[in-house]
From TrEMBL:
Residues 425-438 have a biased composition (Basic and acidic residues). Keywords: ATP-binding, mRNA processing, Nucleotide-binding, Nucleotidyltransferase, RNA-binding, Transcription, Transferase. Adds poly(A) tail to the 3' end of many RNAs, which usually targets these RNAs for decay. Plays a significant role in the global control of gene expression, through influencing the rate of transcript degradation, and in the general RNA quality control. It holds the Pfam family PolyA_pol_RNAbd. PANTHER family: POLYNUCLEOTIDE ADENYLYLTRANSFERASE FAMILY PROTEIN. It comes from Pseudomonas gingeri. This is Poly(A) polymerase I. The keyword Nucleotidyltransferase applies.
């Protein structure tokens, strides 16, 4: 995939051709889409809007994915009706968003997103306008300038996302040579790439996301400015980045996505501390993170649940030891140093990516588990097994071992312990003997300070 990233597969000279004011029209015989494949609610919305005298199309990911025989994640509708006009047509409609106002129409659990045609922001426009605004680096802060269908096509991000399907006439309107790029498996920005990234740096992440998901290459002019502009991601509000990062890592293509993010220098502005660990300890950090992501992808493929907490726990873990050592060097005992480092690291990370509390708490618990899993004597092992975080903690231990951490066979011990019957378990605990004095193996042996005991007694998950 990486190789493909840098190749402009075909027709590099077509760079100027991806803007057109009259679309290429593909009639029903010229494409593979069938109205019946689309959500009937989405088709119904289009029909109702058209009957009310508006233009309306299915657009974006659903058209792109259908052309590639992929089941779309959701269905987006674009229309000439304003949000208020849409709401007047549908009782089950809600206007949402500020930066980008749109309408959600609810049908039971299905939500169809309906957006009014937008125009590009002229750069020299009055900046105080209520509908649109940019900051000094050209980033669009508000994007509610309505426009025509042609305008709407030009302001979309990639050519493959600017295809409009009319389920009534069963025609596709292609304003940006998107069908051509789908055939050639290329992610290509519409317009001038540098300007489009400056308007919205998140488009750099979207390029990577679609390249990984679709196994497409990124066209060379589209990839060229990314490394230089990557630091612009620091300006994006942390709540938006959290949403984007979840899409990057929980869509089933996280391992490839990670490689591309690192390669295009997009990983650093998202996870500065992990990036530093990657520089200092490349093999270990890379293995730990990519193993976690490969597992995540596999679980998604198998329809198993995945938790963002485990993912963030893995992404940040390699950044912990350096901080613990730094605090210890200042005289802090190991366990408080670990707690303090974890706290610092998560708060710093949240400045970039707003990880909600419901995930930061479990991250801490998974990390705490790593301190507790070596302490197995007496009744401790059984108490740990009953702990709701045991499974995540144990999986995390195995992950650390895969990345080369030395734990003296702790993972295998826990695997056997789970498989053993009561008598077997008692034997295993007895056999620990002097090996486990409650602190497990290695350097932690001497660390059983009163502070440590207190912390365990007040454990977060008992
Ligand atoms: P998927 O839903 O599979 O993640 P999608 O292409 O539908 O992919 P959405 O985030 O649902 O992506 O956005 C719908 C459409 O809106 C996109 O196809 C694109 O045309 C447009 N769009 C979304 N985000 C941007 C952006 N940051 N800049 C320009 N256009 C965008
Ligand atoms: Mg979509």
């Amino acid at each position: 995939m990486l190789k493909k990233l840098f190749q402009s597969l075909r027709s590099p000279s077509r760079r100027t051709q991806h803007k057109r004011s009259t679309p290429e029209v593909l009639n029903s015989g010229q494409h593979s889409l069938q109205k019946a494949q689309f959500s009937r609610y989405a088709v119904n919305i289009v029909e109702r809007l058209q009957n009310a005298g508006y233009q309306a199309y299915l657009v974006g990911g659903c058209v792109r994915d259908m052309l590639l025989n992929i089941t779309p994640k959701d269905f987006d509708v674009a229309t000439s009706a304003t949000p208020e006009q849409i709401r007047a047509e549908f009782r089950n409609a809600r206007i949402i968003g500020r930066r980008f106002k749109l309408v959600h129409i609810h049908f039971g659990r299905e939500i169809i997103e309906v957006a009014t045609f937008r125009a590009n922001h002229p750069q020299d426009e009055d900046e105080d306008s209520n509908q649109s605004s940019r900051n000094e680096s050209g980033r669009i802060l508000r994007d509610n300038v309505y426009g025509t269908l042609e305008d709407d096509a030009q302001r979309r991000d990639f050519t493959i996302n600017a295809l409009y399907y009319d389920p009534v006439s069963e025609r596709i309107l292609d304003y940006a040579n998107g069908v051509h790029d789908i055939r050639n498996r290329l992610i290509r920005l519409i317009g001038d790439p540098t300007q489009r990234y400056q308007e919205d740096p998140v488009r750099m992440l979207r390029a990577v996301r679609f390249a990984a998901k679709l196994d497409f290459g990124i066209e060379k002019h589209t990839v060229a400015p990314i490394r230089k502009l990557a630091p612009m991601l620091r300006e994006i509000p942390s709540a938006r980045l959290f949403e984007e990062v979840l899409k990057l890592f929980l869509s089933g293509y996280a391992a490839d996505t990670f490689e591309m993010l690192v390669d295009l220098k997009l990983f650093e502005p998202l996870f500065p501390a992990s990036f530093e660990a990657l520089e200092h300890n490349p093999t270990y950090t890379h293995t730990l993170i990519s193993e976690a992501l490969i597992n995540t992808d596999l679980r998604i493929q198998q329809n198993k649940p995945v938790t963002p907490a485990f993912l963030f726990a893995a992404l940040l873990w390699p950044a912990l030891p350096g901080r613990v050592l730094r605090l210890q060097a200042k005289g802090m005992p190991p366990i408080p140093a670990m707690q303090e480092a974890a706290h610092e690291l998560i708060s710093e990370q949240c400045q970039r990516i707003a990880i909600p509390k419901r995930f930061t708490l479990p991250i801490r618990e998974i990390w705490d588990m790593q301190e507790r899993l070596p302490r197995r004597s007496g009744k401790r092992a059984d108490l740990l097994l009953d702990n709701p975080r045991f499974r995540a903690g144990y999986d995390f231990l195995l992950l650390r071992e895969t990345a080369g951490e030395q734990t003296d066979g702790l993972g295998e011990w826990w695997t056997d312990y789970q498989d053993a019957n009561d008598a077997g378990r008692r034997d295993m605990i007895r056999d620990l003997g002097s090996k486990d004095d409650g602190t497990g193996t290695g350097p932690r042996k001497r660390r059983r300070s009163p502070a440590g005991k207190r912390k365990r007694a007040a454990g977060t998950d008992e």
